[in-house]
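Students often ask what a 'structure token' actually looks like in practice. Rather than answer in the abstract, let us consider Transcription factor TFIID complex subunit Taf3, a protein of 155 residues. Its sequence is given first.
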Amino acid sequence: MEGSPKNDIYFCLMRVFCSQTLRAAGLDRTKLSLLDSFTDIMIRYIQLLSETTMAEAELSRKKDCDLQDFRLALEEVGLLDGTEEDVKEFIEWYHGPQMDELRRVAGFQPASETQTKPKDWLTNLVQKQVRVSGPERFQDTMFSSAVQNNPSYPT
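Now compare that with the structural description of the same chain:
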């Protein structure tokens, strides 16, 4: 993974993904060396999975991969056994709380009625300034009338 700046950028992007994955799993902090090792393992695993998926598609004499090829690749690398029970566990995990947290961290969680879209800091600041005008906007600053009228305040 060393060498070109292009690879370094991809490694850094994957490191962000891995740190968010660890956070979703409940690990809030880790050593940088451990995160780099985890990122390298994840890159190698995804590369193995993609190469195996392509090999499965080529065995079926197809140009493009499909879900069946991916499932067979998951079985070949040992993630799935191919049994119905194993597939059900995978589906339950996919719809479980860890994946919900991963979707939330990644920004892919669907908006519900209770959730509101957060405002960015600039919109928040503009709305705050619009609401406060006149002498009130200097409250708790050195320009407030309370501070200026106080003789004990050093000028």
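One point worth highlighting: Residues 32-59 form the longest helix (28 residues). Ask yourself how you might have guessed this from the sequence alone, and why that guess would often be unreliable.
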